[in-house]
Recover the amino acids of this structure.
């Protein structure tokens, strides 16, 4: 028969071991989140200039080329929508302003019919999104 005080020490050590295991689990999950976020930021930094150039291209296509007027099959609209979705889903660390702009653009582009005024709004929103993205993670 094991003395009672040894049984109590065994119980206390078991509880401490369990708490250490939970602490280690939480720390490793937090580290994983941090590493994923860091990888996203590095990806954004490497693609940032290309993203800004793409936004400029979309704005020029809307304002100068009026490509939306010639786009019967909605190819341009689809490409722009896919670009916005890619930004929204690829980078979870974006500021609230950037997220709001992408949501607003997404809602505008999902309208069944887009008029000239809508395209002017889309161009303006893209310029605003570009400004917000330039301020992200320098």
């Amino acid at each position: 028969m094991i003395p009672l005080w040894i049984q109590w020490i065994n119980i206390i050590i078991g509880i401490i071991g369990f708490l250490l295991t939970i602490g280690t689990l939480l720390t490793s999950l937090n580290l994983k989140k941090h590493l994923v976020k860091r990888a996203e930021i590095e990806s954004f930094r490497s693609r940032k200039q290309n993203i800004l150039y793409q936004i400029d291209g979309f704005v020029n296509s809307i304002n100068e080329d009026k490509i939306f007027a010639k786009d019967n099959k909605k190819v341009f609209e689809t490409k722009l929508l896919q670009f916005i979705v890619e930004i929204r889903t690829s980078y979870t660390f974006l500021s609230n302003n950037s997220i709001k702009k992408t949501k607003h653009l997404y809602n505008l582009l999902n309208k069944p019919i887009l008029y000239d005024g809508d395209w002017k709004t889309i161009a303006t929103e893209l310029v605003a999104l570009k400004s917000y993205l330039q301020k992200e993670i320098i």
The mean pLDDT is 91. Helices lie at 4-63, 67-70, 75-90, 96-109, 116-135.
